[in-house]
Write a structure and sequence with these properties.
Elements lengths: L1 E4 L10 E4 L11 E8 L2 H8 L14 E8 L8 E5 L14
């Protein structure tokens, strides 16, 4: 998958597109094919280094909508949306597809 990534704080110029392995869900998780993701003000603050606790490298993105493509069989194909508190900070975010 392609993902927007950064490995240094301080500037929006630190963003770049990288090719990553497709995510594998844990037993209690699903993988969502992102259809839309918004730029939350905290995403920009995070990239600029104004948020604590972010582990690098990271792909940002907290707010998204999409379709479940992996995980519990009964959820495959389900349309979902979320505002995820740790996404883009300590776990990979939604700026990927």
């Amino acid at each position: 998958m392609k993902a927007l990534r950064f490995d240094n704080f301080g500037s929006l110029d630190n963003l770049r597109v990288e090719e990553l392995d497709d995510p594998r869900p844990r037993p209690d998780e699903v993988v969502v094919r992102i259809r839309a993701a918004s730029l939350n003000p905290n995403d920009a603050k995070n990239l600029l280094g104004h948020m604590e606790g972010t582990t690098l490298p990271r792909n940002p993105g907290r707010d998204f909508s999409g379709v479940v493509v992996r995980g519990a069989e009964e959820m495959i194909g389900m349309e979902v949306w979320a505002k995820a508190a740790t996404r883009g900070f300590t776990r990979e975010g939604s700026f990927a597809n």
